UniProtKB/TrEMBL annotation:
Name of the protein in question: 8-amino-7-oxononanoate synthase
Organism from which the protein derives: Rubrimonas cliftonensis
Single GO term (MF): pyridoxal phosphate binding
InterPro entries the record matches: Aminotransferase_I/II_large, AON_synthase_class-II, PyrdxlP-dep_Trfase, PyrdxlP-dep_Trfase_major, PyrdxlP-dep_Trfase_small
Lineage of origin: Bacteria, Pseudomonadati, Pseudomonadota, Alphaproteobacteria, Rhodobacterales
Required cofactor names: pyridoxal 5'-phosphate
One Pfam family this sequence matches: Aminotran_1_2
Keywords: Transferase
Segments forming domain Aminotransferase class I/classII large: 64-406
Length: 425
């Protein structure tokens, strides 16, 4: 009755109060997106459940699909040696390190993993942390300060931007891969700043292209800057033995001050790392809050990453298969008239589709036809550059690749019927 009515408004069910989470502006955006999906008859493409490993084919939302949505580039998350190493490490050390490495959490496998990571880059040392994202945030956030400048490629990962923001440094992003722009900026503005850090990716995660490392090294040397390369998607992918951008481009990796990478892609684990001079690693291990005040990387995750590095070194044919598959997928998509954007045909290739509703519709149709390739929508990419993104693995077959390209072409042809329901076309 009347009391219940009062209670309903009193609790703000009808009209959320300012401090309710449901009153946050982002909720409006989410509701708008959900409503658009409903009009189109397209389920949300996010949080799709994969029941098992994200292998070349996987059981996703109750059916077997060809899977291009997992970044297990060399199939090491399906490899006995890696899985067994993680299990053996649990038996010996337990699941958790139960403390920060600074106080109580240090274990023998930490140094073993870090030696192996440093060796990839001929670096003096390396440090591993519990998250790739946190590694970028805490490394950039603690190395740079108010007097400094962080120059990020405009397509650099969110974690680098967050680190730059945390640091309090001046931040500038430069047009993607436009090193003339970087050079011009440094010529006029270098002297205004203390330290300058240039941040790029070894292989760009949305577009699948690479920067010119030798030129970056010339520029940072000429202007006395540090260079940081995020190899999240480059390790295991670029170079004849998968050692990343420097190996691929024939550059001495010791010319780069800060190599960053993740354990979560090729290395079939979870975590992040920095490799570089022993002074850099000492500084981070003493002062980076995301390392000092966080638990040590766990035994199974460390052991899996170390075993994955060993398999990668022992079986370079995986890297070769991945390279062939990456080129084959790009060729197959292009042969069907699809726009693969800036992709160089490595393990990451987008199919650029235009607006977000179109990309969502294509992803939906593709899933129904047996292909999982996630849509990347605005605001993750500019609205006119919404896309499907493919992560290729060494374990995909030629048949997976050809079938996937056929499915995308069919889905693109059928998508306008779905988006028309929004009244956009
Ligand atoms: N850097 C790049 C370029 C990435 O793509 C990602 C995430 N995929 C990260 C850093 C963060 O790594 P993680 O997911 O391992 O935390």
């Amino acid at each position: 009755g009347a009391a219940a009515g009062r209670e309903a408004t009193g609790r703000g069910r009808a009209k959320p109060r300012a401090f309710d989470f449901s009153a946050l502006p982002v909720m409006k955006e989410l509701q708008f997106t959900a409503a658009a999906g409903q009009v189109m008859g397209v389920d949300s493409p996010f949080f799709r459940v994969c029941e098992g490993r994200g292998a070349a084919t996987a059981r996703i939302e109750g059916a077997d699909r060809i899977n291009f949505s997992s970044y297990d580039y060399l199939g090491l998350n399906q490899t006995g040696a890696v899985l067994e190493a993680a299990k053996a490490a649990i038996d010996r050390y337990g699941v958790s390190c139960s403390g920060s490495r600074v106080v109580g959490g240090e274990r023998p496998f930490h140094a073993a993993l870090e030696r192996a990571l440093a060796a990839i880059y001929d670096a003096e040392d390396a440090v591993a942390m519990v998250s790739g994202h946190a590694t970028n945030v805490t490394t950039i956030g603690s190395l740079m300060g108010k007097e400094d400048l962080v120059l990020c490629d405009e397509l650099a990962h969110n974690s680098a931007l967050e680190g730059a923001r945390l640091s309090g440094a001046t931040r500038r992003s430069f047009p993607h891969n436009d090193l003339d722009w970087v050079e011009r900026l440094l010529e006029t503005e270098r002297s205004r700043f203390g330290r300058v850090l240039i941040v790029v990716e070894g292989l760009y995660s949305m577009d699948g292209d690479t920067p010119d490392l030798a030129r970056l090294i010339d520029i940072k040397n000429a202007h006395d800057c540090w260079l940081m390369v995020d190899e999240a998607h480059a390790l295991g992918v670029l170079g004849p033995t998968g050692r990343g951008l420097a190996e691929a481009q024939g550059v001495d990796p010791r010319s780069v001050e800060i190599w960053m990478g993740t354990l979560s892609k090729t290395l079939a684990s979870t975590g992040g790392y920095i490799a570089g001079s022993s002074a850099l690693i000492q500084v981070l291990k003493a002062r980076a809050p995301g390392f000092v005040f966080s638990v040590g990387l766990s035994a199974p995750l460390s052991a899996a990453a170390l075993a994955a590095l060993e398999v990668m070194a022992r079986e370079p044919e995986r890297v070769a298969r991945l390279r062939d598959n990456g080129l084959a997928l790009r060729a197959a998509l292009r042969a069907r008239g699809l726009d693969t954007g800036l992709s160089e045909g490595h393990a990451v290739t987008p199919v650029v589709l235009g607006d977000s509703p179109t990309a969502a519709a294509v992803a939906h149709l593709a899933l129904l036809k047996g292909l999982s390739a996630p849509p990347i929508l605005h605001p993750a990419v500019p609205e006119r550059r919404a896309r499907l993104r493919f992560f290729v693995s060494s374990e995909h077959t030629a048949a997976h690749i050809e079938r996937a390209a056929d499915i995308v072409a069919e889905a693109v042809a059928e998508a306008p019927e779905i988006t028309a329901r929004l009244g956009l076309s």
